């Protein structure tokens, strides 16, 4: 268990891409990490794009960011909602400043764009937000997974095994 003792934030809002949220949570827990589901409200049920629910453990406002080793942003349509919360953007900014692992997949790049942490970074995402990523100053590439220091990005559900392999590798070195 490579990640024993590590604590990770998994952000959530309605309309997350079911696999892009659940697959990382399960893989990270398999590696011994504690993964907290963090949403606008604590103990609230959020529903994915395909109807799979998940309940939040804590609210954005209750997070003590220094207690965590990494943060994950899911894809789907939830990133468009998540980026509207200053608490979410601040969590991402602090993780970036402290060089702690940040995972983003699919449309999750929208949150990092709004947090203004992509300038000069090499990333990938769903091709649908390529222009958004490059307009934010990122160098976008069409690859299954891209690691740029502490930032791990991926395109879509078929890339999840590559994404989690690299994210776990980055986490295990921190």
From TrEMBL:
Keyword DNA damage among UniProt keywords: no
User: Carries keyword Magnesium?
Assistant: no
Looking at the record's lineage, which domain of life comes first? Answer: Bacteria
Keyword list, A-Z: Glutamine amidotransferase
Ranges for domain DJ-1/PfpI come to 6-168
Where along the sequence do coiled-coil regions lie? none
What family classification does the UniProt entry report for this protein? Belongs to the peptidase C56 family.
PANTHER family membership? DJ-1 PROTEIN (PTHR42733), DJ-1_PFPI DOMAIN-CONTAINING PROTEIN (PTHR42733:SF13)
**What name appears for this protein in its UniProt entry?**
Type 1 glutamine amidotransferase domain-containing protein
What is the organism of origin for this protein? Bacillus seohaeanensis
Q: What is the lineage of its organism?
A: Bacteria, Bacillati, Bacillota, Bacilli, Bacillales
